[in-house]
Amino acid sequence: MGGKPMEVVKLVKPGEASVEVEQIYQEICRMKDPRWLGPLFGFFANVPPLLKAWWELQKQLEVLDGHVSRELTNKIAMVCAVATDCPRCVNFHKSDLIDRLQLSAAEVDKLHDFEGSDLPEGEKAVYRVARKLPLNEGITDAEFQALRDAGYDDAGITEIVSVSLLEGGFARHAAVFARFEDGVNWPAQHTPSPEYRKVINH
User: Which of 14, 27, 46, 200 can pair with 183 through a Cys bridge, CB separation 3.0 to 4.6 Å?
Assistant: First the structure.
């Protein structure tokens, strides 16, 4: 039985947006890199106040200085991408950690199996908590205490939890909903790698 073709969500592409959206896009390119202006921002740009709010949250947690290092919060983003099995997100964060934050590929690979790596125990304690939040898994008393033992105060823990929730949500969007968007038409210069483009709707 024939039916009406499915109308996917159109992303607001750079160069085709309102002045308000273009200003936000320009700030993202300036503060991170044009390659990091990915299709997720084009999705949020359908409602400009949402785009502004999501970008401000990401900027505060992953770009501007805070209570924990921004290298750590960006590595948390990678751990959440791996935990939620989001190929697009894994590729994005791998490229970001290597190209923007100058980590080696070997350092990034450790985040795929941090438990079996030689990372410091205090860092592993962060990832144990971070990976559980997007998966809705319970955090034990011992896992929480390990954050305190590693020296994290209330503000630091708030940032760790916040970036985990943020990036876990972004990963769920990409893994579950992105196939209903016209992401394949997103400009190549605003994607981190050819590999990313192959999984842009995954």
Answer: 200
